């Protein structure tokens, strides 16, 4: 049964009613104690609190939502007389006697005890816990967890124990015992004890899901679900609780994102454009190739957006070489033929200049006025160019984010194309749109990415955007052979590269990723280039490109490489996206195991863009299972969307939105690959909610509104307007 179907069957199972919880008739508030710091717990001092912060635990509320990653089944409880040889069980008994016994092994000390219940007695043994001989006393009531080794001596080898009568009795040795993520200094047992002290707070948790939605989907109360996540009576109860909270997590995210989109579309006035005309049709018909079915479909989706009164916010994703640039040009031409302006922005000047030269070639003879806004422009040149743009005499401007600086004025900006959208986040998208808005008119924005995004991530990372996807590659696109090269075959690899260079081709050499410092990366590039120029590639033209070079130097190097004046370009991931050199046929990546799967796929996509066969050579010595999986996937799979799914499975969501997506929540329980059906269901229910109550202003949605505001933080100021 899928998780989505399971969500509809909660009420058919035993209701989630933990027996020892005080019940309330209505959960309409959160207990104030949830905000109390962790040090308010007995035995938690400042040092322990600092260590707990590594787990994200600062308050009692954080603790309550620090869910276990598994449970150990300690439900098998037996009387002493019922134990069988080799059986692991929990026994409730009384301590008769206890003593410390030394052994011939210097590092081994035994604590031996005699315990009994109404069915008999047995010997119990602890290993290397000598302090227990002083701590425990005859007459103590105990829970013992261990393995029974029968025979004449009836020995019970103990793996865990608790003293009855204490507040935590039973937490560690009976029932389904939770196992939590820990640190070296904070044990599972300590976390379990803390949860035992705050579990009463779950009983009065506010439930953000509207009662009508809970009734329709037969969902349990949040308070019951949170309690059952920690201390379920059985595994079925735990699974029901987990499913409820996974749905809640995804539902809150989707309501937040869809509400954001609703407000954007209803509070912004877009540049409503007319249908495609002679200029656009002439460009398409003049191309030396036919558009693919995917390209045509996406152009139709964009065309419908451009003719609406609301500004377009669309993400265009496609694999490397799938033809996104042509779609972007189509979108910009729609603005130009409506007597308006368009811009194309890229994250780096190297990529922006590549786009500018490509557009110059595409628009040759069409009479369009292009401009490239570069940081290398002299003050007089920049002032002149800004005057041209402000006077409406520039149709399409290309550049970096310098295009939307305060001194850049577009009198009729209708379309903004942002390349490599994955480098920016939700807040950056909002800032971009706000800065590009002029005279109350918000331009249509097309975000592009060559990093394929799994469908589930598209609904989360970019849930506030419409998504268009180009799946197919244009006819004639050559497959890039990928080889994992062991160190023993390095000499042969260099020989192959020299053969390619002698045939007139070119090569990229990408140096290992050094996340700590761009300066160190630059040094690594310079060092590698020096070794190659004096060694394996002596006599060939070798140059470097890295992020520490001045903009003018980077652009000049790229111009020489594109023109064929450089045979081997030793570089960093600065050439990861957008660089188009049809004559380059070899991509060589050093220490490829240090790169992410998406990065490796992007690097591979820098070759195979011309008429010649191309290859990607991956050098590396992977030390982790994940690194091995990444390189094997690169070796076997060329489809970027398939690799994106594999990458998500290998890495997991982790911090889903990261610093670039600051303001959006990470996922605690949901796993996008596993919970795709639940995500779709949450999306559907969220869309229904936003359609009924886009401001979440109805009284029954007050708790939902409060929780979304709490989770999303400052990125949802639009929710505070009512």
Word description of this protein:
By secondary structure, this protein is of the alpha/beta class. It contains 23 helices and 23 strands. Strands 12-13-11-14-16-10-17 form a seven-stranded parallel beta sheet, sandwiched between helices. Strands 18-23-22-19-21-20 form a six-stranded parallel beta sheet, sandwiched between helices. A five-stranded mixed beta barrel has the order 3-4-5-7-6. α7 packs across α8, α8 (235-267) crosses α22 (676-692) and α10 runs parallel beside α11 (324-336). The longest helix is centred in the middle third of the chain and has 33 residues, at 235-267. 41% of the residues are buried.
Pick out its properties.
disordered C terminus; 23 helices; alpha/beta; 18% strand; seven-stranded parallel beta sheet; globular; 722 residues; 23 strands
SSE layout and pairing:
Layout: H1 3-7, H2 46-53, H3 60-64, E1 70-74, E2 77-78, E3 88-102, E4 109-117, E5 120-127, H4 132-135, E6 141-149, E7 155-163, E8 175-179, H5 188-198, H6 211-217, H7 222-230, H8 235-267, E9 269-270, H9 278-285, H10 293-306, E10 313-318, H11 324-336, E11 341-345, H12 349-362, E12 370-373, H13 379-390, E13 396-399, E14 413-418, H14 426-436, E15 441-442, E16 444-449, H15 455-458, E17 466-470, E18 481-485, H16 490-502, E19 506-510, H17 518-534, E20 542-545, H18 551-563, E21 568-571, E22 584-589, H19 597-604, E23 615-619, H20 625-636, H21 640-651, H22 676-692, H23 702-712
Parallel strand pairs: 2-3, 5-7, 9-15, 10-16, 10-17, 11-13, 11-14, 12-13, 14-16, 18-23, 19-21, 19-22, 20-21, 22-23
Antiparallel strand pairs: 1-8, 3-4, 3-6, 4-5, 6-7
